[in-house]
Amino acid sequence: MATERLVVVGGDAAGMSAASQARRLKGPAELEITAFERGHFTSYSACGIPYWIGGQVPGRDDLIARTPEEHRARDIDLRMRTEVVELDLPGGRVRTRDLDSGSEAWTGYDKLVLATGARPVRPRLPGIGAHGVHGVQTLDDGQRLMDTLQRTEGTEGRRAVVVGAGYIGVEMAEALVARGYEVTVLHRGPQPMATLDPDMGALVHAAMNRMGILTVSGAEVTKILTDDRGAVRAVATAAGDEYPADVVVLGIGVEPRTALAREAGLPLGESGGILTDLSMRVRGHENIWSGGDCVEVLDLVAGCMRHIPLGTHANKHGQVIGSGVGGGYATFPGVVGTAVSKVCDLEIARTGLRERDALAAGLRFVTATISSTTTAGYYPTAADMTVKMLAELRTRRLLGVQIVGGAGSAKRVDIAAVALTAGMTVDQVVSLDLGYAPPFSPVWDPVLVAARKAVSAVRAAG
């Protein structure tokens, strides 16, 4: 039997998980694996970059799970600094460019995996290309930002502006505070953390300001101002304000990197992400798979396709893809939209639908918000915690949970994530047998208290 050829485009979580899983199932005599990565690093934790920047993680290499040499030792031909610039689907080949030499070549395949990831949203603004303006998505991005920060290490009065207040924005704000910067966060929305409802985002806003992070809502950035050397000196907004900056970090969000797929005619969703079936095969293409931050996934609560770029999903996608490529069988059924973050001492979590998501899905619902503590109120480590819950009016089904609070708050969202995946009602959530001891929880866990209030809200609404 002839040896099959697998080409993997992208050398991070989804791509190399797929390659590794396929290699476990098929040896080099059965499956030849070639992977292309445009950057300098592979198999790393992009989610850990803010903590490396902030100093909680000692060094860049601590974020790398597996080096190119380790992949090659497992008979995966991993080619770094090599970008795939064209897909020839009828011919079963990809055109690559060596980013150091500029040389190009064609490589044939029998099976293809697209794991091209996402890229930071970079608005078209005057000065956006100035020295000192950074997006943070890849480890290469993180290294460039670290190089900029280290050039001014030890200088007094250093100022940073973060544009955007999503997960990346608030995490980078914390990292820059840890490095001694005066930090301003500018964002267009009514409150930071648009992944939360505005009433919960207001809690994040107040906490960030208490931490010394100036957080400006409703701020539309119009221009990056530069000095005579072409380096950033300030950020201007539509209101006519200027915020001085020695460094600017873009935390506006990311978009799927799917230009290759689009040019090749592969199916894309509303967000521009690649569309796949449950086995992560690209729809309509038997021998092409895709996973990671470049795809759309099924939202199990809303029942629609969404772009949700998270490393947890990417690694699972890779396992599913590798199983399919290697002759096995696995599926990725979808997500409920669970995510956690922190800014300094504040923990932030959400899963399921926000109010505007539920409205967009045409659902009638009630909300319930409660204030509690992370442990028994008398226990010395007790911290404030706010929980908001959404429940469908007709079925009493849990629709979503948001949590903002002190240490010990965020991971409680996992209770709700399991309940959402199981399709539980808020009545069933109230009856969950959760662990209790004063150092860990009040007698009634805050998630259960919110569920009790949601049950009452459903009854009151008839």
Automatic annotation (TrEMBL):
FAD/NAD(P)-binding domain segment(s): 5-305
The keyword Oxidoreductase belongs to this UniProt entry's keyword annotation: yes
The keyword Oxidoreductase appears for this protein: yes
Keywords on record: FAD, Flavoprotein, Oxidoreductase, Redox-active center
Cofactor(s) the protein requires to work: FAD
A Pfam family this chain is assigned to: Pyr_redox_2
Family affiliation: Belongs to the class-III pyridine nucleotide-disulfide oxidoreductase family.
Protein name: FAD-dependent oxidoreductase
Species of provenance: Streptomyces flavotricini
